[in-house]
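Hey, quick one: can you model this chain's 3D structure?
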Amino acid sequence: MDLPKTPLDLLSLDLPQGEPWGYALAQSLLKAPWAWRALRPTPGVLDLIRQDLEALYLELGRLREAYPLGSLGERPPHPAEEEALKALLTRDPEALVAALKTHGPWPFALYRAFRFDGALHPIPRPRLPRKDELVGYEAQLQALKANARRFLEGRPALHTLLYGARGTGKSTAAKSLLHLEGVRMVEVEPGALSQLEGLLETLGQLPHRLFLFLDDLSLDPEGEAFHHLKALLEGSLEGPPENVLLLATSNRRHLVRRQGENPLPGEAPEAWDELQDTLALAERFGLVLTFPPFDQALYLKAVARHLGRPLTEEEKKEALRFALNRGFSGRVARQAALFLS
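Sure thing. Here's the predicted structure for all 341 residues.
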């Protein structure tokens, strides 16, 4: 188990407010080698936890005496940290197991947003869009949030594809789900799609419900990632676990960079089969929400929303000149508002 030994070791930790040594060792318990096994504990695992609690309790006393310190953190303690610290102070393995079953091991015990590039990286302070940032897509947002709430409540929900032109707010809409209570999201980088199986195996053990976010998805139909993702989306025996819902954005309705020709059934059977195989991936997403391009009126409304006030006639002209070579979109509206402010 990796433990802090000196006060300098504490500076790299994301500690909460309060006595730092106790919370540092509580975090070590959430990161312990047996933390994942503790989700389904056996007598032997409980023995290991008990032994480590006894050893860490003595170590905590030594560190507090050798290096008395005031609070180093700025945020409130997370319930997982408080419960792990209480289990440490009482040397109660069952209490620690209960905390891990409720909150999951580190980093899922403490954080809600993650990035996966082959390794999992927590995002302690994700940049969230304002709740009122998107203009003109109220129906899409309502459908997206309704499906998300069903999923969070344990009811049937659909894998979701947000489709539309660049800059229309698809990624903003997806990330806005983090405003909902209980949402956890893992953003998967394109180069890590081939490693999804291991990630899903890990996520499937957690007590949480998580969104797997695939942003700006555009695949080669002959590439490994295309066939890999299609198999995971209910096309094989090993699909996503029931506590994981896929959420993808794309500028391409069928998620592929090229489709070739569109043969008719009965003509060129091999080409027809290839086309159907290509289209099958997008069909795995049960909920498809379209984000159409902005018109001029919606663009000006979005600029005013970002500025937080109505536009003057001169500002409308400036905003339209700003979009002249860029087109109308939510992204351009946000940039125009910065230009005018």
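One thing worth noting: DSSP finds 13 helices and seven strands in the chain.
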